[in-house]
Request: fold
Amino acid sequence: MMETQTLYEMLKKKQEPKGYYFSGDKERTGELIEALITNRNRYGYMACPCRLASGDREHDSDIICPCVYRTPDVKEYGSCYCNLYVSKEWIEEKIPHTYVPERRPPEKMQ
Reply:
C-alpha cells in the first residue's frame, strides 16, 4: 500500500502544476494508481490502466501514462478517458461529467 501512496504523491506533485488533478474519488483513484503499478511490474512501463497493453513499449508508447490522449481529453471533456486526471473545472463541477470516448485508433488496439 505504501507504494500506491508514494506514486499518488509523486504524480500529484508533478501533474497539478500542469493543470491535471486527481478526480476526488479516492477509491477509484487508488484503484487506478494500483493498476499503474501492476502494469509497471508486468510490462516495465506504466501503461494506461483503462486500456489493454500489448507488452511492446514502442507499440504502447501512446498509452504510457499520462497517455497522449490525456491533453485533448481533458481540454474537451475535463477528464481523461479513465478519469484519473481531470481539470479544475471538472472537480469544481463547473462542467458536466460526460463520457469520454476512446481516441486510440482501432489499429493500435490489436
Remarks:
- The mean pLDDT is 94.
- Strands lie at 21-22, 85-86.
- The helical segments are 2-15, 26-43, 70-77, 88-91.
- Residues 52 and 61 are 12 Å apart (CA to CA).
